[in-house]
Structures are given as structure tokens and as C-alpha cells.
Write a structure and sequence with these properties.
Elements: H1 4-12, H2 17-20, E1 25-26, H3 30-38, H4 51-59, H5 64-75, H6 79-97, H7 110-121, H8 127-132, H9 134-147, E2 150-151, H10 157-167, H11 169-172, H12 175-205
Helix pairs in contact: 1-7, 1-12, 3-9, 4-5, 4-6, 5-7, 6-7, 7-9
Protein name: Phosphohydrolase
Organism: Nocardioides albus
């Protein structure tokens, strides 16, 4: 079942899916990333792991935006969100522990990838399934590469886009659209309240 709270947190980031496809650089192959996801250590997915501290350890001083993204995911208090963060951090740290990928993941966009994985994808597919199920693992690998600003190695952008569109669990479900409508409704209510307050203030302080 989709987690609409996580979808709401994702929409709050105002990251556009179509824009993410612009200016992709070459990345590692999907098979490489899938294989690395499948080796995610079980302790990374433990409920007790402090993913904000883990992000700081993995990225050191250069990881400010990633730590901030991990903090946003952790603030949802959702296990799936924290586990989504942990899988991304494993993919980064594993390049030192288990060997480099053919092309390094782009760290300059890793904060966006972390948010997409922990808020958007984890809202519909539990990260444990990324590790255990081949199709969901492919979806996770392709989602990560997209939001890292990388096209899967050996694929055209057109092909990569078509495959991810077919696999995209969030886009296929109704929960994301409901969350989007709820967010727009709340924004409209806030806008109307602000207009009412402005009119009231203008009336109160206008000269007679």
C-alpha cells in the first residue's frame, strides 16, 4: 500500500521528473547497480541505524546536501524512508568496500537521488524488496541513475526512459496523484487565508 505521507514529502521537494531527464551524463550499467543493490548489508536496513549520521560518515565534509536530504527523509519517521536512504548510502560506500563501478555515481546530484529513492520510490516499494526482487531492484537502479543525472551505460536515453516508465510503480498508482491533489488543495486554502488576512489588515489600517 502506498504511503501518501511520503508522497507528500516528495512533492514538497518540488523536483520535476521530466526535468530530471535533461542533460544526463553516462553512468554505470543497470546490471552493475542492480548487483550492488543486491549486496546491501542487512545491518544497513536495520531500524536502529541513524541514517543522518551514516550519511555524514560516508560523505565526510563534502556531503552537506546529502546529509540534509537524509535528514528530510528521517524527519518523516518512516522506516521505509530511512531504509531508502541506507541503500543509496551503501551504493556510495560500496565503491570503496566492494570495488568501483565502471562509472562513478555523480555525487553532485546524490541528494536528489536520495530524496527520490527514500520518498518517492520507498512510498510504493519497500527497500527490502529492492534487495530481494529482480524487477523492483531494476526499478530502484534506474531510479537512482536518473536522479543522479546519469543514463545507464550502453543505453540510449530514449530506451532508458521507456523502460523506467514501464517499471515506475509510483506513476502507475493513484496515491501520488491523490497526494498531489491534497497538496494543491492545502496550498489553495493557505492562499485564500492569506488574501483574507491581507484584506482585513487593509481595512483595519486604511484611513477613514
Amino acid at each position: 500500500m502506498a504511503d501518501e505521507e511520503l508522497f507528500g514529502a516528495w512533492l514538497d521537494q518540488e523536483l520535476d521528473l521530466d526535468a530530471a531527464w535533461n542533460g544526463l551524463e553516462p553512468g554505470p550499467t543497470v546490471d552493475e547497480v542492480m548487483a550492488r543493490i543486491s549486496t546491501t548489508p542487512s545491518w544497513f536496513l536495520d531500524d536502529s541505524v541513524d541514517v543522518v549520521a551514516l550519511a555524514g560518515d560516508v560523505l565526510d565534509e563534502s556531503g552537506g546536501p546529502v546529509v540534509a536530504a537524509a535528514r528530510k527523509a528521517a524527519a518523516t519517521a518512516k522506516v521505509a524512508a530511512r531504509q531508502g536512504v541506507a541503500v543509496v548510502l551503501w551504493l556510495v560506500s560500496s565503491q570503496e568496500l566492494a570495488g568501483r563501478l565502471s562509472t562513478d555515481l555523480r555525487l553532485d546530484r546524490l541528494d536528489r537521488a536520495l530524496l527520490a529513492m527514500s520518498l518517492r520510490l520507498a512510498a510504493v516499494v519497500e527497500p527490502q524488496r529492492w534487495v530481494e526482487e529482480a524487477e523492483r531492484r531494476e526499478e530502484a537502479a534506474r531510479t537512482l541513475l536518473l536522479w543522479c543525472g546519469q543514463c545507464p551505460g550502453g543505453e540510449s536515453e530514449q530506451n532508458a526512459r521507456a523502460i523506467l516508465s514501464r517499471l515506475d510503480s509510483a506513476a502507475r498508482g493513484e496515491a501520488l496523484e491523490r497526494a498531489r491533489r491534497d497538496r494543491e488543495h492545502r496550498s489553495e486554502i493557505r492562499r485564500r487565508l492569506e488574501q483574507a488576512r491581507a484584506r482585513e489588515a487593509a481595512t483595519r489600517y486604511s484611513p477613514e
